[in-house]
What we know:
Layout: H1 11-35, H2 42-70, H3 83-113, E1 120-122, E2 126-128, H4 140-176, H5 182-185
Helix pairs in contact: 1-2, 2-3, 3-4
The protein binds protoporphyrin IX containing FE (2 copies).
Amino acid sequence: MLRNSKSGYGWIAITFHWTMALLIIGMLSLGLYMHQLPQTEPATFQLFQLHKSIGFVVLTLAVLRLFWRLINPSPRLPDGMPPLEKAAAHLGHAGLYALIFALPVTGWFMVSASPWGIPTILFNVLPVPHLHVPAALGSQEEAESFFKLLHEYGAYLLIALITVHVAAALKHHFISRDDTLNRMISAAPGKTDN
Ligand code: HEM
Ligand code: HEM
């Protein structure tokens, strides 16, 4: 089953979910690690380039994933789930979606605003143009600091949301003992299917 149904995720949504989860957790770790390194070292420069390249892979996957989600049914949340918990789950998913776009986009604006003008060449092959940075944001340094702040706090918010998201998934699996986690692991019909 490639497509989602009302009762479960299809293999395409599942592959998007876990590929992106791995890439995003890797990117958060890489970002926090490289931020502490001496900025003038050539090895640091290479890590920044890798971070930018993978960031664009995440952005491309985010666009494809959102498109796939819009043309597929969304699986229903478990029937017995209280309305407030359902609303929290929807809000959490919307927040995760918003941040998997916001992180790469603020990163892209940050490097576009930088007075260093370092080009972005994905995996040393594909050049990516700089974005137009609104003049209202002030000098290049000011605009760069603004996007750096958004990128950094966006990353902290994403870490917080992922933590709650994972805790909720584990609670469903081990305490409520419903199919929520199983249906994000396998597209095979689960016990709540009808
Ligand atoms: C999923 C996508 C991304 C995630 C999760 C992510 C995450 C992070 C994190 C956690 C940091 C460290 C923040 C700090 O402590 O200040 C960081 C730094 C950085 N990111 Fe990203 N990032 C993403 C995409 C991008 C993209 C697409 C670009 C550029 C095109 C980019 C450019 C940068 C740069 C230049 C820094 C270093 C800022 C500095 O400390 O000077 N990031 N990122
Ligand atoms: C970077 C990490 C992650 C992100 C950005 C993320 C994002 C999302 C999003 C946006 C959804 C909504 C469904 C969709 O449209 O695809 C979702 C569903 C789900 N995620 Fe994650 N996720 C991450 C990591 C994890 C991890 C580590 C687990 C498990 C421990 C997990 C378990 C689930 C489950 C069980 C669902 C299905 C919920 C339902 O049935 O409605 N996620 N995730």
